[in-house]
Amino acid sequence: MSEQTPGTDAHETASPAGGTEAPPAAADEHRTAPRRVLVAEDETLIRLDIVEILIGAGYDVVGEADNGERAVELARETEPDLVVMDVKMPIMDGITAAKLVAEERIAPVVMLTAFSQRDLVESAREAGAMAYVVKPFTENDLIPAIEVAMARFDEIRALEDEVTSLADKFETRKLVERAKSLLTTKMGLTEPEAFRWIQKTSMDRRLSMREVAETVVDQMTDSPPYLK
């Protein structure tokens, strides 16, 4: 029953022209320990199938829940790297549970939804879900969605560590997204590669990620959006 559809794709990025070092060729950074995942799905067969897919892909399943309330409890107890959660569950629905997990910054959430529940996707995003997968799905749908969700969560945490005010967070996020987009379209990097390049350049040059993003946008566009 392993089925799933990718929720959101991550596309890669490239590095800016003239002035800054070229980004490294796409090189995956492998963790020494497997990523820890919590699975919340009330349909037993689907849950077991998800667990099998995750273990087969090298993930460590640290908990299983069959309702939203238990999912939140386990997320707090185990502090996983990611939560895979169904939208419709008893006691507490997945959207409410995802909102609690997101508000407490426990882990990124990948939502599972049925074709008939597409209207819930926007609610899931507003609740803090980083990606979604549509049933029925396959391993090739689930794993990329998981990687996208974790990459986005890491980006948000890195940006939040750098800026404090809400206004700064919004402007910095907007600039970094613009820089990533330019790097992907003009230099051929993936989104994760572009973000890592911005982050590494920031550390190497002792600049903020916002300053690096501004430089990228300035060099690769005639009219930088942050000057408008």
From TrEMBL:
<dbReference type="InterPro" id="IPR008327">
    <property type="entry name" value="Sig_transdc_resp-reg_antiterm"/>
</dbReference>
<dbReference type="Pfam" id="PF00072">
    <property type="entry name" value="Response_reg"/>
</dbReference>
<keyword id="KW-0597">Phosphoprotein</keyword>
<dbReference type="Pfam" id="PF03861">
    <property type="entry name" value="ANTAR"/>
</dbReference>
<feature type="region of interest" description="Disordered">
    <location>
        <begin position="1"/>
        <end position="33"/>
    </location>
</feature>
<dbReference type="InterPro" id="IPR001789">
    <property type="entry name" value="Sig_transdc_resp-reg_receiver"/>
</dbReference>
<dbReference type="GO" id="GO:0000160">
    <property type="term" value="P:phosphorelay signal transduction system"/>
</dbReference>
<protein>
    <submittedName>
        <fullName>Response regulator receiver and ANTAR domain protein</fullName>
    </submittedName>
</protein>
<feature type="domain" description="ANTAR">
    <location>
        <begin position="156"/>
        <end position="217"/>
    </location>
</feature>
<feature type="domain" description="Response regulatory">
    <location>
        <begin position="36"/>
        <end position="150"/>
    </location>
</feature>
<dbReference type="InterPro" id="IPR011006">
    <property type="entry name" value="CheY-like_superfamily"/>
</dbReference>
<dbReference type="InterPro" id="IPR052048">
    <property type="entry name" value="ST_Response_Regulator"/>
</dbReference>
<feature type="compositionally biased region" description="Low complexity">
    <location>
        <begin position="13"/>
        <end position="26"/>
    </location>
</feature>
<feature type="modified residue" description="4-aspartylphosphate">
    <location>
        <position position="86"/>
    </location>
</feature>
<dbReference type="InterPro" id="IPR005561">
    <property type="entry name" value="ANTAR"/>
</dbReference>
<dbReference type="InterPro" id="IPR036388">
    <property type="entry name" value="WH-like_DNA-bd_sf"/>
</dbReference>
<dbReference type="GO" id="GO:0003723">
    <property type="term" value="F:RNA binding"/>
</dbReference>
